[in-house]
Amino acid sequence: MRKLFFLVLFAFCSCFLFSQKKIEGTPKALSEISAYDLVFNYSDIKIPKFGTEKAFLEKKVKTLEEKKAGSGEEFKRSWFLNRKERFEPRFIESFNKRFINKEIVVGEKDAEYVIKIHTTWMYPGYGVFATRHYRAELTADIYIYKKSDPEDIILKMTYKRMPGGSPLGADFYSGYRITECYAKLAKELAKYMKKKVL
Questions:
Q1: Per the CB 3.0–4.6 Å rule, which of 38, 78, 90, 185 could disulfide with 162?
Q2: How do strand 35-41 and strand 21-25 relate by DSSP bridges?
Q3: At what angle do helices 88-96 and 174-196 cross, to 10 degrees?
Q4: CA–CA distance, 90 with 186 (Å, rounded to integer)
């Protein structure tokens, strides 16, 4: 019984942690806007135990290179490529599919308004065959503004520790786990805009 209690408590706390958000601005000011361009910012990302992204990559590349020549540099290359090839398309897909009638659409280059996603903290997670798996998590600040006036922030939100990973645990690749963090972030943002903006 005690074990069940702690499992329920853990599930509740996990849900609460990744649903935390701080809101600044007036969501209803966006009620007439149906299309947004997207800007993704990855500067100054903090990585647990390493501090900076640079320190994390240096350590990761060195460790992988010691195991297999070339694997470290390949990891570093894919780490940056994943942004355009995985994270951003998955965010757009996850957000837009929640508006069947296209009440709000993101990823429109010609849109007058912008949603900027600044990733500030990231945990890549961990997954090795036949061992325990740890989901990835990320924290991001979201800014919404008119493209012609980027200093006038209409709405700012901070989403903390968005989780990402396979529900079955078969997520050995960090790129996949982080991609699912962006899918979750898009889902939470869409949910908020449905409730507070429309």
A1: 185
A2: unpaired
A3: 30
A4: 9
Q: What are 11-29's pLDDT values in tens digits?
A: 334 444 455 578 899 999 9
Q: What percent of the chain has a predicted confidence (pLDDT) above 70? A: 83
- Extract the runs of DSSP E, i.e. beta strands, from 32-148: 35-41, 46-47, 51-52, 105-106, 113-123, 136-146
Instruction: List the structure tokens of 197.
Output: 């903006």
DSSP state of 28: G
Lookup: tokens for 17:
């942690």
Q: Measured between alpha carbons, how far is 149 from 127 in angstroms, rounded to an integer?
A: 43
* Enclosing H/E stretch for 159: strand 149-164
Could you count the other beta carbons within 10 Å of the beta carbon of residue 25? 15
Name beta bridge partners: 114.
37, 145
